[in-house]
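Hi support team,

I've been running sequence recovery on a batch of backbones for a student project. Most finish fine, but this one hangs at about 90% for roughly twenty minutes before it completes. I'm not sure whether the input is malformed or the queue is just slow. I've pasted the structure tokens below so you can try to reproduce it. Let me know if you need the job ID as well.

Thanks,
M.K.
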């Protein structure tokens, strides 16, 4: 979480007083890396290397999605081909991930697991039991 200017001033003042990231962090109950980050940002602004301490217009760049339509189709094909098998014999998300990796696709296990869960939500039969009193 980005700190506000009063918090940053407090971090820098305590660091200048103690001269230690660790002691400043302990006193403020924050991470030592957080202290170091803000002290370095303030130093960069003082030295003219940066214009702002807290960047207001941070562009959040995300890499292109890993779950391309091609990979999604491969996952769905594996799942559909596994539907004929009994429940215990059906393919798992981990096995699909292993097959994708072996075929040279770059994708994380969690991404595959989430896509399998989405697919199962829409494609598996659910049984509903209705209890009736005699």
């Amino acid at each position: 979480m980005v700190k506000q200017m009063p918090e940053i001033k407090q971090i820098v003042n305590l660091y200048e007083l103690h001269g230690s990231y660790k002691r400043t962090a302990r006193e403020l109950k924050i991470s030592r890396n957080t202290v170091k980050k803000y002290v370095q940002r303030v130093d960069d602004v003082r030295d003219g290397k940066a214009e702002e301490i807290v960047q207001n217009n941070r562009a959040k760049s995300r890499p292109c999605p890993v779950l391309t339509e091609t990979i999604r189709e491969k996952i769905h094909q594996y799942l559909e081909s596994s539907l004929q098998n009994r429940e215990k014999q059906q393919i798992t998300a981990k096995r699909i991930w292993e097959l994708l990796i072996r075929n040279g696709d770059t994708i994380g296990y969690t991404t595959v697991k989430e896509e399998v869960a989405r697919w199962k939500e829409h494609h598996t039969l659910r049984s509903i039991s209705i209890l009736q009193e005699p």
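--
Follow-up from support: It reproduced on our side and the slowdown came from queue contention, not your input. The chain has six helices and no strands. No action needed from you.
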